[in-house]
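Worked example (supplementary).
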Amino acid sequence: MLRSKLPITLTLTLMSFIMVIAISIPVGVISSKYEDRPGIRIIDILGQLTMAIPPFFLGILITYLFGMVLHMFVPGGFVSYSDDFWGFVSYLFFPAVAIALPKAAMSVKLLKTSILSERKLDYVRTAYSRGNSTTDVMYRHVLKNAIIPVITFLGMTLADIVAGSLVIEQVFSIPGYGRLLISSISNRDYPVVQAIIAIIAMIVIIINLIVDILYRVLDPRIREAR
Amino acid sequence: MKGLKYKIRNNPELYAGALISAIMLLIIISGTIFSPYDPNAMSASDKFAAPSMAHPLGCDNFGRDLFARLSIGGATTLLVATLTILMSLTLGIIIGAFTGYYGGVVDEILMRFNDAVLAFPSILLALVFISQFGSGTWKVIISLGIVFVPSFARIVRGEFLRCRNLDYVRSARLMGAGDIRIMFVHILPNTLPVVLSSAVIGFNNAVLAEASMSFLGIGVQPPASSLGRMLSDAQAFLFSEPSYAIYTGSMIALLILGFSLLGDGLKKNA
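After joint prediction of all chains, the assembly is encoded as:
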């Protein structure tokens, strides 16, 4: 029972995590590059609004707009991955968006603050004075340093996304760990609850381990400290 | 002295957040106290009544006045969040003060325990508590209260660690003040700006956590109304009556928006 549901929750988590990265890094870089333009101010305000919308409400809004008005997917029409893999992935797309958007907004805000504070430092001026172009300085110098706090955040976010997917599964009626967990809690089926919590704890520990290893890969200061 | 206009431009988050939160509080209080309707009184003839002078936001699937229910639901959510934060803040300040001020082995052990709890998604941990102790408003408050302790303990500990060897603390010690007095009379007031802004952010997380738990049906139990529960009811009527879900969800979103802006603004000021 647990093994057949694991791919569902994992796929949903991974899809939304990839979306968070795919949205937040370009938007963060662009919005810090043109920080004073009015268009960027609008993105900031939109981001602030998105952060405030709870994922389950975003899920309901998406169900209504894309499912019931625009008919882009069938709400509740979940397809199992063993039957039709692409149908499965495309059904998970909108739930993943609902989890990813608020997290992406937070990560954009963090990346932007981080880039803006890095850009004031001396090494950036040095890099410019050596004749690097703006793009070079941004990607080869600033982003490398600015991304460190974002990675900490993304590590924590991945754990949050696992938890968020439990709630979103309820909204989009996806038969993953979330629904199983909730129904076992209401039915007082403690062994199942314990098993799911143990599996999620393991996933969280593995994520934290990967983040710690990533630090050492990305930041030579941490690599050489030991 | 600088004018209000300058202050608003300097920290727009604080003022926007204060404004939104004040409006939401006003709506909730006015709807709870002055609404002529009993939020739980059903009326078959008013089922999904359209907005009118009698029912400003219309009625829900049982003909209950939506505005009254939204206010009382918001009040429940706010009550749960406030009590949660009061509980976890008190415990967090006590744990953080002692571990940060004294340090040592106990500090090491408690902080490793803290790290373990913090690494885990808070809502999941609250679900574990609920699954063991059962659901209900008080149990939600206690479980969320326990889950939020580590984040406060860590912040308070950091502040105490920073302050414990500053000059004013040393001179208080020279004057013969006891440890407890130094901790709670001298250091604590100096940590308040940081602690307060983190309390507002924690409050926000508590609102979100309570709403999610009620949405999942394991938080506040009916007949007590709560915004999360109403949203999950509204989802069933999403196709025919989208406004029910939209009003309820916007209420949660605006509450969170107001307090998150307020928290950002306070952090900027601290």
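Two points are worth noting when inspecting this output. Chain B has a mean pLDDT of 82. Residues 163 and 187 of chain B are 7 Å apart (CA to CA).
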